[in-house]
Design brief:
The complex is a heterodimer of chains A (about 350) and B (about 325).
Chain A (H helix, E strand, L loop, with lengths): L1 H11 L1 H20 L7 H25 L7 H22 L4 H29 L4 H19 L9 H8 L1 E2 L3 E2 H19 L1 H11 L1 H6 L4 H27 L10 H11 L11 H20 L7 H37 L1
Antiparallel strand pairs in A: 1-2
Helix pairs in contact in A: 2-13, 3-8, 3-11, 3-12, 3-13, 4-5, 4-6, 4-11, 4-12, 5-6, 5-11, 7-11, 8-9, 9-11, 12-13
Chain B lengths: L12 H5 L2 H19 L6 H26 L7 H19 L2 H24 L5 H20 L9 H8 L1 E2 L2 E2 H19 L1 H11 L1 H6 L4 H27 L10 H11 L11 H20 L4 H18 L8
Antiparallel strand pairs in B: 1-2
Helix pairs in contact in B: 2-13, 3-8, 3-11, 3-12, 3-13, 4-5, 4-6, 4-11, 5-6, 5-11, 7-11, 8-9, 9-11, 12-13, 13-14
The chains are: A mainly alpha (about 350), B mainly alpha (about 325).
């Protein structure tokens, strides 16, 4: 009985389990390469490396679940990063130099802005009845333009305390980035997944018509998903601001590609209706940590994208190899059956 | 019981409007007149030719993109397929001293890239968008590793002539585009291979069950697409004079936009290359209007996005579900 349950669980979550196995391998290699892995600095540096992609990939996962794809994540992150870096100092001055209050208000404004941009994406997709891929491609161009408008040149004034708060440690040992990731998991993903709206995402991704006929409010569900995705991009923008302490409208970032790759590595299907944030986290961690690992091993950064691409393709070929193995086994058992008869 | 049957070729305003090609043509006319009103010089044939020259590179890339989108995929590896093949051409031509060798090497690389993508999509059954995304990362690394950070080689005389020379006021590269485009239209409309592409785009499963060798067809589609991108990359060297690392980046997403603006469904199975040619011209007419309006880079990107959305609102919306 028990073993059956385990087998069913393993079959259902095969992609996630594979992702975590790969992550384990990467972490072991990491522990071997990084001298201070087991000190308090190890987790801090690891979580700082992965946090931005983990947050960006959360939004991407939600959209992929609805059978969409978001090509505007990268530029929305740049846009929110530029806004955060630009408005932070004036807002802090507005509150009489109070860093805590000013920083908090900045974050709230930027997150709202991100949610608004996401809502815009959602409105065009839902009410315009257009394909998400092409909509987000166009809005991505708009966000990029807005970023250049806000910050014509790279720069901005970000207090060092702000940077230290987001990249530092709490209570000596716990990295702030880990707390942010935990909060994203506990405050955004878990409640969302557990409620009607989260369940509806899977239904829509599985079969939109069927979902519609079962009375799911497709428009509302999609609008919420796109808004939350925009919010995640904004949070990622804030974290990026804290890490780089500036806003750069010309920065070429890989967040769009990597967030899609992370979701897919974590078991999401671009056809929709399959995937979870738990898996995505593993995917995002693998993709970010690989970069660090190559640096530790002294391998030229030219190989970075090569390795990421190969991992993605290998992870997705698992399906192919498992069917081949199954077919061969079936053929063998059929042959044996024939022989005994 | 007799049923009333309408004549087959019963043309009303409504059926006319529902023809995507007509909408594309209308959009081109509107944009062309708008740009002409803003800047009278733009009615000049010489200017028209410069727009076409800029458009022909994207147009040739979009042959590949159209074929792939028609099968229900989308190619996100345009950027480095173009760049890598251009780099291979430049470097091989310089090393061997013969531009013919460079051409052959670049075409071989194009075929190999196409086989890689095609086998990934058709045999390993990876979603096309993810497969091409991963291929793009791999090609990006390959480009840097191959060139070791130093770009070598430059354009050759004959290549420069193709990109910049003209006969009766028509540039050779535009002619190349027209010839390749006509071949593509022929391929899609008049051959069984073309029909198979549409069938796969409508339903991969049904076409496989109907006896179409979907795997082989998909692989050939990806090979043709990659070779077209290679050709565009080589022509781009002729136009720019030298290869550079960012030459392909600008075409990555705009190629998808051009195909969709041209009336091809991003879901596959519907569309034509003639529409895509229109879409490519629309994109460059928009760009030229933005240049006349003399908007800064920031504004240009915003207006570009807004116009793409507006064009899509005019057509390209899916049916309303009730």
């Amino acid at each position: 009985m028990k073993s059956d349950e385990i087998r069913i669980f393993a079959r259902r979550n095969r992609d996630v389990i594979i992702a975590y196995c790969v992550l384990l391998v990467v972490l072991v290699l990491f522990a071997q390469a990084q001298a201070d892995f087991f000190t308090r600095y190890g987790p801090q540096s690891i979580f700082n490396q992965i946090i931005t992609l983990c947050i960006a990939a959360l939004g991407q996962t939600l959209i992929i679940l609805t059978a969409g794809i978001d090509l505007s994540v990268g530029t929305l992150i740049i846009f929110t990063n530029c806004v955060a870096a630009t408005i932070m100092r004036p807002i802090i001055d507005l509150f009489g130099g109070s860093l805590l209050l000013g920083g908090a208000v900045t974050c709230v404004i930027v997150v709202l802005l991100g949610a608004l941009c996401g809502l815009f994406n959602g409105c065009v997709v839902v009410y315009g009845r257009l394909q998400p891929i092409i909509v987000t491609l166009a809005t991505g161009s708009i966000f990029s333009g807005l970023a250049r408008y806000v910050r014509p040149s790279p720069g901005g004034d970000v207090p060092s305390q702000f940077a230290r708060f987001f990249t530092g440690r709490v209570l000596e040992y716990i990295p702030m980035s880990a707390i942010v990731l935990l909060l994203a998991l506990l405050l955004i993903w878990m409640p969302y997944r557990g409620r009607r709206y989260g369940q509806a995402l899977y239904a829509i991704g599985g079969n939109e018509n069927a979902a519609f006929l079962s009375g799911i409010k497709i428009n509302a569900v999609k609008l919420l998903a796109y808004s939350i995705a925009g919010m995640c991009a904004a949070i990622c923008g804030i974290l990026l601001t804290a890490q780089t302490r500036s806003g750069d409208p010309t920065a070429a970032n890989n967040f769009t590609n990597n967030s899609i790759a992370a979701a897919v590595l974590g078991g999401a299907s671009l056809a929709g209706g399959k995937g979870s944030y738990i898996g995505t986290i593993a995917g995002a961690m693998i993709l970010s940590l690989i970069v660090g690992l190559l640096i530790f091993w002294g391998i030229s950064s030219y190989y970075q994208n090569l390795v990421q691409g190969i991992i993605l393709i290998l992870a997705l070929s698992v399906n192919f190899f498992s069917t081949i193995i199954r077919e061969r086994r079936n053929k063998l058992s059929a042959l044996k059956g024939g022989a005994t008869k | 019981m007799k049923t009333l049957r309408l004549p087959e070729k019963y043309i009303t305003l409504r059926t006319l409007w529902s023809s995507t090609l007509l909408r594309v043509l209308l959009m081109i006319t509107v944009l062309f007149i708008a740009s002409g009103i803003l800047e009278p010089n733009y009615f000049d044939t010489a200017h028209l030719m410069t727009v076409l020259v800029l458009a022909c590179f994207l147009g040739i890339i979009c042959i590949g993109q159209t074929l792939i989108i028609l099968t229900g995929g989308a190619d996100l590896s345009v950027a480095y397929t173009v760049t890598l093949s251009a780099c291979v051409f430049g470097q091989t031509a310089k090393l061997t001293g013969s531009s013919l060798m460079g051409l052959l090497a670049a075409l071989c690389v194009g075929i190999l890239i196409g086989l890689f993508k095609g086998i990934g999509v058709a045999r390993l059954e990876i979603t096309p968008m993810v497969m091409t995304l991963a291929t793009n990362s791999i090609l990006m690394s390959t480009t840097y590793l191959y060139t070791q950070g130093v770009l070598k080689g430059s354009s050759h005389d004959w290549l420069t002539t193709i990109a910049k020379g003209s006969v009766w006021g028509i540039r050779y590269c535009v002619l190349v585009w027209v010839v390749l485009g006509a071949l593509t239209i022929f391929l899609l409309r008049k051959t069984t291979f073309g029909r198979k592409i549409y069938a796969i785009g409508s339903s991969l499963r049904v076409s496989r069950l109907s006896g179409v060798n979907t795997r082989l067809t998909l692989i050939i589609v990806y090979v043709i697409a990659s070779v077209m991108m290679t050709v565009a990359g080589i022509l781009l060297i002729g136009y720019l004079g030298y290869p550079n690392y960012t030459m392909g980046n600008g075409y990555q997403l705009i190629s998808i936009a051009a195909v969709v603006i041209g009336g091809t469904s991003i879901l596959g199975g519907h569309g034509s290359y003639l529409g895509t040619m229109g879409g490519v011209i629309i994109i460059y007419l928009i760009q030229s209007i933005l240049i006349i309006l003399n908007i800064a880079e920031a504004g240009r990107e915003i207006v570009n996005g807004v116009i793409i959305l507006l064009v899509l609102f005019v057509y390209g919306r899916s049916e309303k579900t009730t």
